[in-house]
Amino acid sequence: MKKIIVSSPLKVRFHRIRLRGNGALILLCMVILIGIVCGAVSGKNADADVMKRLDFIFQTNYHIRCSQGMLSAFVSSFGSAVIFLTVIFFLGLSLWGGFLAWSVPFLKGYGYGLSVGYLYSAYGFYGVGYNLLIVLPGAFLSAMIIAGAAQEAVRNSFKMIGIFTKCAVKDDPHIQMTNYLKMMLWLLFLSAVSAVADMLFALCFSWIFKF
Questions:
Q1: pLDDT in tens, 138-171
Q2: Residues 159-162: contacts with CB within 8 Å, 24+ apart?
Q3: Would you tell me the crossing angle of helices 173-205 and 136-163 to the nearest 10 degrees?
Q4: What angle (nearest 5°) sits at the alpha carbon of residue 107, between those of residues 203 and 205?
Q5: Exposure string (b/e) for 123-145, b if CB count within 10 Å is 16 or more?
Q6: Quick check: pTM over 0.85?
Q7: 17: Cβ contacts below 8 Å, ≥ 6 apart
């Protein structure tokens, strides 16, 4: 009887984590929105030098899309995605990473909000138009990919915790890790597609904007 009392709460807890996968994705999207709001507020007080220094991580240098060619736009977008996905991937491989993976979508949203806030502060509705036509399409796809990757990292991390509890392990650890690696590779491919979309939107509309 004592064994049932000890093990039951853990079983219920991890069972609920698996059932609420879609709910976790929605919460991660909300985290991104919160990051966008915080970044937009901060972006009003940022200057051009700060935006250029943060570009490799947050894609805040709009001059790359407008004046440095399509390849530079692709490299900037894909490089940023690779950084975020790498961080999320390693967090998903640790027992505590599932709790920290939630912060990565916030940072992604913060970077986009930072760019939006700066463009609006510096160029008004001209900057808003640039954001809607060039930045937003690729940023939206990238944000959804980051949210999906964070969800997978949270799931994998909690499943690893389940191995060290008294819960019955339903998934083979080798199969679990293989599926995690395959999912991350698929998300990396989608990030490349998102970077191509970012490049194409810059190709189609960057001629309109001269900063």
A1: 889 999 999 999 999 999 988 888 776 655 556 6
A2: 159/14, 160/93, 160/94, 160/95, 161/14, 161/95, 161/98, 162/10, 162/14
A3: 170
A4: 10
A5: beeebeebbebbbbbbbebbbbb
A6: no
A7: 155, 158
d(CA 71, CA 13): 47
User: Tell me, what amino acid is at 68?
Assistant: Q
Among 113, 146, 103, smallest CA distance to 33 is for 113
Alpha-carbon distance values, 195 to 18, 85, 144, 169, 182 (Å): 31, 14, 13, 38, 20
Residue 61 has pLDDT above 80, yes or no: no
d(CA 11, CA 6): 10
Angle at which helices 136-163 and 103-123 pack, to 10 degrees? 160
Strand boundaries in 18-122, DSSP class E: none
The token pair at 105 is 């979508």
Q: Is the pLDDT of residue 80 over 70?
A: yes
